Amino acid sequence: MVSQTSQYALRAVLYLASTGGGPVVAQDISDTTGVPKGYLHKILRRLGKAGILQAHRGVGGGYELVGKPCDLSVGQILKAIEPAQSSRNGELGGESNPDALRRLLIAARKNLDAIFESTTVQDLLDDDLDTQPAQISA
After folding, report:
1. pLDDT of 19-75, one tens digit each?
2. For 90-112, what is each residue's pLDDT tens digit?
3. 89 contact partners, CB below 8 Å, separation of at least 6
4. Which domains does the chain have, with CATH numbers?
5. Dihedrals phi, psi of 111, to nearest 5 degrees
6. Spatial contact of 13 and 53, defined as CB atoms under 8 Å apart
7. Is the C or the N end of the chain the one with fewer CB within 10 Å?
8. How many CA atoms lie within 13 A of 8 on its CB side?
């Protein structure tokens, strides 16, 4: 459902959001989240290219979120890490599945995407999750 890379990205973003702002060095992020440092750098670059965080070089440098946690959705993070995931409805069901099953799987994916888009990083920090499925027709 959510790849290990995406989970690592979510951990890193949640940690950055929990620090209250200001640059955090990759080693601190790695130590706290358990994400291997070498792999973390790759993830942080992707998040930076997506405009989710920015890097500061030099003494006192590190990584910090660009916006507020309440303005950043889980869906934005997932799309930044694995953009192809958001366009996989065509794969769901495949040719071997009946049309009804394919529609069910596509509707399930849309509901999951809707939950990710409507859940912010702040919601995760506050543990204030509304996981009710959206009313999406197949």
Report:
1. 987 899 999 999 999 999 999 999 999 999 999 999 999 988 999 999 999 999 999
2. 455 556 667 888 888 888 889 99
3. 106, 109, 110
4. 4-126 (1.10.10.10)
5. -65, -45
6. yes
7. N
8. 23
